[in-house]
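Provenance and format

Records in this collection were gathered into a single text stream. Each protein contributes a sequence line and a token line. The two records reproduced below are adjacent in the stream.
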Amino acid sequence: MTTYSSSEKTKNSLIEAAGQLIAELGLSNVSVRTIASLAKENIGTIHYHFGNKEGLFAEVINEVIQRWEAVPLEKELATLDLTNRTDQAIAIRRVVERMSQLIFSAQAPDWHRQVIYQVMQQPGILRDMFSHRVITPENQFTVELFQHIDPNLSYEQAYAHTLTIQSPLIVLADYQTAVLSELNQPGYNQEYITYLENILISQKQKFFDLPLV
């Protein structure tokens, strides 16, 4: 009889395998047979634990989403007075550092960041799921932050500022292989990530004439 622990191990193996394959090949190029082979599990275990391939993919995305939901941006900014210029500068730092840490955390496998790119390229339930639970609330709070900093900003302008602090981090994640090839490095080290964070933070603080904190 299958025990709870072995059942969970099987589920986790399938999620890990599916995540790696989605990140490498894209959603439409991953088969249940390939997933089962990489996970060293029977194809039937996919149907048993997840119902079908789509159910497994949803769990892959849910695992990534849960990391983001565990440290909500709203909570990160809750202790700050967003009418205060110093706190506004601190808020920008927290937004950038939180996103960077979530994307490049050494505690999360590489596919956690790479699978997001694959999901966002293909319209459907999975993209809607990630957008609803992560992207929309993240952008809402960041746009509101920039509108606190400059009340004259339109939504479109505040969203443009949001994109300019997110995009470099996303590019580093999505095009990791190409970037690391240019850097001639096997992986991103924390010193490089911190350097990039500080560039993004100081650029935005200077743009809005905020304290450099």
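Adjacent record:
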Amino acid sequence: MRLRSMILLFVIGAVVAGSPSAVLRAVGTSGPRRTQTTTIVLPHHVPQYRDGISLRFAMLHDVIHERFPKHGSAYYEARERAVRARLAALTSDDPARFPLLDDLAVGLDRQGKSDAAVDLMREKLDAQKDRGLQGRDLYSTHANLGTFLIHGNFKAAQAGDAAARDRFREGLANIHESIRVNPEAHFGRERWQAVIAEFLLASFDDPQLLTRFDFLGNGLATTPGRPSRGWGSAAYSVSDELPVPMQLALRSDESAESPETRPIADWIRSRITRVGAEEGWSRVDVPSHRRSVAFDEPMLGILGMWRQGGGANPHFAVAIGETMSRVGQRFIAHAAFERAIQLADRVHPDPEIRRRFVEACELRRRSLQVSIDVNQQILYDEFRDQLDVGLQFQKEYQEYEKARLAEGIEFDDPELFAGFSPTTPSIASSSGEEEVMSITRSDDPRPSLGRAVAGSAFFGGSISVLIGALAARTRTFVAGRRKVSAGVHWIEE
């Protein structure tokens, strides 16, 4: 049988045998299907640093709406009095003075006395250097000195004061030094403090920058597309191809954080959605942040700066909004843009810059509203109600704190808030389904459709070729017999 004939027979047999197999596979009930659902760790649940904290979306919801405890002025005044008294009891060369100087300076900065806080940190830095201290021992001094210089000189520097800009740059240099000696401190928060300082420094010369990007390099100037509904890479899933230790790490925060599985943790983190440094950012003078990053890194930095630093500001709010839009957290993004608009008077002294900033935020807010498909007024009322809850909690917290301090309770007494009963006792929001990823697998005893069809087709094609070959062989044999019979008959004649 010729090769062409064999191929033709094989194809015909494969089609004839494979098609019924596909139908039977689709409707067959050769065995019950068993399903198994596995809940795995979301990529951003694995911390960047060993023993570090990991992000939850509820944290961002709460910081936008001020749903966290916040000390009032009475607390920092009491802290200043107590710390000064403790310092007075120590000799000038006692190293126990160093952490107390930090406490005192932070309290002064929170009271708006940044210049006095700077003087204390300069005094501390000189004393530490006289004792020969260096490296990590100077971390908190550089970090605090840099923070106070930036806080105390920002407004004047933005308004064009040359001396204030020099002090602002000095503050930034100290932040960079704190990062150099201790890059993992505060889970990398100082890195993002440097980024926003560089961004604001660049905006002093080019205020339009504030309307083109947030401080992470997410673009504000373009019309927003439909917000993402996903939080990470589609490649992130439990797969039979992954080694068993990796599959276990995907299911457990503890195993993902252990030293033995750090490479696995890094693999998981490589699946986190990246944000920032979008088109055009390369032309902005922010040397500390040139490439996109895993979204949880700057978000944790913002949380720390908002809660433990200078508090709410529009640059943090708009960065949260842009980032949450890119990872599918549309309600949080909408609230963040509302908060950014509310804080817009702090963006820049120029009313035109503020107007364009608000315009960009409103454009994104409307886009999110369409995506969420909820009336704008309902969304705004929800934002306002949540913010009122947070602000009311902080008011009650500070009033109780003030009363207890007036009674003579020390600012650092563990019992300072014993008996505190706020209107909203559980101020921190709980995480929900947004923090859960489940993969459902079907354990089907039947072979897969592709394998079933391929197997049947190959079998059918092979049988067709075999039958064709036998048929051809039979025809040859019969024809040969006829020739022999004809020849014998002729001889007999």
